[in-house]
Each structure stands twice: as structure tokens, then as C-alpha cells.
UniProtKB/TrEMBL annotation, chain A:
Region (Disordered): 200-228
Lineage of producing organism: Eukaryota, Metazoa, Chordata, Craniata, Vertebrata
Intracellular or extracellular location(s): Mitochondrion
Chief location: mitochondrion
Organism, scientific name: Pipistrellus kuhlii (Kuhl's pipistrelle)
Protein name per its UniProtKB record: Large ribosomal subunit protein uL10m
UniProt superkingdom: Eukaryota
From TrEMBL, chain B:
GO annotation, cellular component aspect: mitochondrial large ribosomal subunit
The protein's name: Large ribosomal subunit protein mL53
Subcellular location as annotated: Mitochondrion
Keyword Thylakoid assigned: no
InterPro entries named in the record: mtLSU_mL53 (IPR052473), Ribosomal_mL53 (IPR019716)
Family to which the UniProt record says this protein belongs: Belongs to the mitochondrion-specific ribosomal protein mL53 family.
This protein's UniProt keywords: Mitochondrion, Ribonucleoprotein, Ribosomal protein, Transit peptide
Length: 228, 113
């Protein structure tokens, strides 16, 4: 540009007025609150339903394995009626804080999968997860009891409920049966001894050639029938 | 991006990766992120012989990552106070060092014969 024009442009440059308080010191204007979309409400309802309806909830880390492997695993679990669910942590965490599963909160960090089922089929689930060499089972909740991975493995090794009930009943009746036997032992012993004695007496009487009437069995032990 | 660096380098120099943590503790997030990055399909496909094992415990122990390289070197990272980025960067630099050492050895051995 020509020198004079340059000088003129420099002199007539626009300098905006500075505000009294710099905008960095003021609080930022509040953003309008976004209202909940239908999808978020649906997700919340689904989370609530899942935690309501299912007895067994297990959490495992969402390892990024190939989709065929994941689909195969899902299929195997579905055969035992175990559903595989994934929810965004952002909605799951507030729900858990409000409900009684507060102690499961530290598990929900990063990518997770929820394995939920109506019946606690732990043995099959552990077997399916063992087929994946990375076994990311972190923990979970069965019937309102929070279990760690070791707890799940122990649970799967327990015998069935009927067996355990039978064992318990057997153990309890054993004690009462022992007491009963102890109490009954003395009279039984006495009765056995008396029976033995009566039998001996009868044998003694039948061996002797006594013409007289045989003594009644409850006579005194040392009374002899008189021989005429 | 450190995860991408690890994916680019591959796990060829690595023999075994063992990740151990206790999920009910509060300091496991970085270890879990590290596990997520290392156990991706593409990363594992670079070396199918490398085994990635996960040890989930409940005894309050600190999270740690134990890496065994093919030439016998060992890298132990205690993830309680490390971020995932730091762990991945350290892992990537060790892999680079090991593979450089490995490739530096073999031409020397051939030339020496």
C-alpha cells in the first residue's frame, strides 16, 4: 500500500471499548437445561425392570473380542436363559446409588456387560465364561447378596438346594435321635435282661421232671417246687 | 493415542501379559483401561502366541500388570497411582526397546558367523 494510505489506516484502526469487568471474571451465562428425551426415560425404565425381575446379576468387563466370538458367547448363554445387557454407565450409576446396590458402584468403571437371569444358573455361566481365555467376571449379586468372583465359583460348587435341605434335616434329627436313644437305653436294657431271665426260667422248668404245676413266671427266683 | 501406538507396534516381542486387580477397589480404573486397550482383537492378532490373562481377586491387593517379554525381560507396572496413558506409553516404549534389541542382535549374529 502507499505510505500515506498505510499511515491513515493505522491511525483510523478501530479499538473496541474494554468492558468494565473482563468477561473471564463473570460467571458464564447458564445453559438452558436439556429436557430428558424419550430414549433416556426408556433406558432408565429398562434398568429398573432388569434389577427388579432378575435374581442373578453378574458383571463382567466388556472385553473387545471379535463380534463372532461375542455372538457365540451370547448364544450359549441364551440357551441357559441368561440375557446379556449393556447400559450406559451415566444412567446406571445414579440408579445404583439410589437403590440398595450401592456397593456394586466401584465395579461400574469403563466398559461393562451385565449378565442377568431369573434363575441363578451359576455353574453354566462360569463354564461358558471359562471357554473365553480372558475371564473378565468381576462380581455380581445373587438374591440380594453381593458376591465376588470367588463367591460365584464357590456358589457354583454348592450342591443343589434339596440336597442341602436333606443334609440339614438329617443333621438336626441326628441329635434328637441320639438323645432319644440315650434315654431309652436303660429301660430297653432292663427289659432285655428280664426277657432273658424269663427264658432261662422256662428252660429250667421244662428241663426238670416236675409233676406239679410249673411256678408262675413272676414268682421269687429261688423258690423251688416241692417234690413229693 | 498411546493405545493406537501399541496397536501399531504389535505384541510380537511379548510372551505373556498378566493383569491382576481387585474390582471392588477404587484405584483400578487405569488398569482396566489398560486391559481394554491391550485385549483388543487387532492388538492380540499381531501375536497369537502371546497370552493375555486376567486375574480377578477380592483381597484388597494393588492392581498390577506383569509383562514377560520373549527374551526374558520383565516389566511390572503397579497401576494404583498411574494413569492408563502412562502405562500404555511405558508399555509401548518397552516393546520398542525389546524389538530393537531383538532385531539389533540377529544381524550381528549372522554377520559374526
Amino acid at each position: 500500500m502507499h505510505f500515506e494510505r498505510q499511515k491513515l489506516m493505522a491511525v483510523t484502526e478501530y479499538i473496541p471499548p474494554k468492558p468494565a469487568i473482563s468477561p473471564q471474571c463473570l460467571a458464564p451465562p447458564s445453559k438452558p437445561v436439556q429436557e430428558e428425551t424419550g430414549l433416556i426415560r426408556l433406558i432408565r425404565r429398562e434398568i429398573a425392570a432388569v434389577f427388579q425381575n432378575n435374581r442373578m446379576i453378574a458383571i463382567c468387563q466388556n472385553i473387545p473380542m471379535s463380534s463372532e466370538d461375542k455372538l457365540l458367547m451370547r448364544h450359549r448363554l441364551r440357551k441357559h436363559n441368561i440375557l446379556v445387557k449393556a447400559f450406559p454407565n451415566q444412567f446406571l450409576k445414579p440408579f445404583l446409588e439410589g437403590s440398595k446396590y450401592r456397593n456394586l458402584l466401584p465395579l461400574f468403571v469403563g466398559h461393562n456387560l451385565l449378565l442377568v437371569s431369573g434363575e441363578p444358573k451359576v455353574r453354566e455361566m462360569v463354564r461358558v465364561l471359562k471357554s473365553v481365555p480372558l475371564l473378565p467376571l468381576l462380581g455380581g449379586c445373587i438374591d440380594d447378596t453381593i458376591l465376588s468372583r470367588q463367591g460365584f465359583i464357590n456358589y457354583s460348587k454348592l450342591p443343589s438346594l434339596d440336597l442341602v435341605q436333606g443334609e440339614l434335616v438329617g443333621g438336626l434329627t441326628l441329635l434328637t435321635a441320639q438323645t432319644h436313644a440315650l434315654l431309652q437305653r436303660q429301660p430297653l436294657h432292663l427289659t432285655a435282661l428280664l426277657d432273658q431271665y424269663v427264658r432261662q426260667q422256662r428252660q429250667g422248668h421244662s428241663a426238670e421232671p416236675a409233676p406239679g404245676q410249673p411256678d408262675p413266671p413272676d414268682s421269687a427266683p429261688d423258690s423251688q417246687p416241692a417234690c413229693p | 493415542m498411546a493405545a493406537a501406538a501399541v496397536a501399531r507396534l504389535g505384541l510380537r516381542a511379548v510372551k505373556e501379559v498378566r493383569v491382576q486387580f481387585c474390582p471392588f477397589e477404587n484405584n483400578v480404573e487405569s488398569t482396566r483401561t489398560f486391559l481394554q486397550a491391550v485385549s483388543r482383537d487387532k492388538v492380540r492378532a499381531t501375536n497369537l502366541k502371546c497370552s493375555v490373562t486376567v486375574d480377578v481377586r477380592h483381597d484388597g491387593s494393588e492392581p498390577r500388570v506383569d509383562v514377560l517379554f520373549g527374551d526374558g525381560h520383565r516389566l511390572v507396572m503397579r497401576g494404583a497411582h498411574l494413569t492408563a496413558q502412562e502405562m500404555l506409553m511405558a508399555f509401548a516404549s518397552h516393546i520398542r526397546a525389546r524389538s530393537a534389541a531383538g532385531s539389533g542382535d540377529t544381524p550381528g549374529a549372522d554377520g559374526g558367523r
